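debug: dumping io for the single-chain case to check the tokenizer round-trip. Nothing else runs in this session.
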Amino acid sequence: MKTLVIIPTLNEKTNIFHLYKKLKKLNIKFDMLFVDDNSDDGSQEIIKKLAKKNKNVKYIFRPKKMGIGSAHKDAFKWAYKKRYSVLVTMDADGTHDPKYIKLLIKKLKDHSMSISNRFMKPNLLKNWPPSRIFLTYLRHITIQIFLFVPYDTSGAFRCIDCKKVPLSHLIEAEDNGYSYFWESIFILHQKKHQIAQAAIPLPYRSVGNTHITFRDIFFAIYYLLIVFIRKILGKY
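debug: decoded output
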């Protein structure tokens, strides 16, 4: 089973090496693909050093900030071209613990994809500010109401069976930012893919700053309405 762990980065210098060490401790054979959007904090230098030391570390350096959704699409195109069997996507900010990768892979059995779910059990959003918890729950509930999707759609900790999910289904989502996550799950759900969920805790980011802005939040609301209208008109 040829497995690839995809890690988009943008100014994650303080987190990349720590994540790399955690990944190396896993008793799984896999490659790592870093997709960096022209970080200016030295992230690319660290990635290049890791690649020199370990042939299983790959990277794509993009010329500017192009969006996390776009980073996933480029990574998927690269991975399918290289004929990987299983893809794992995760954040570089320390909120996704690599120890749960085995669980996500295990849950792929009889499913096209497995994803983390922060709402299946209480207290999975550890140390989050009340305002962020409120917004996260609000987004989750709103997407369920508007799009009838029974999943935690906005998380990036995912595992994909490439033999069951065509590349075209993963890159069909139009958004290139954070809305890519819920839009892609909505599309996969519409195409009748079976998606497994795992209750995985998501601690609040402790190092570095979040890249989500208020503009991203307001655009997500606007874009959700656009997708909802398209769904009503039967365009999915």
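debug: round-trip ok. The CA atoms of residues 20 and 50 lie 8 Å apart.
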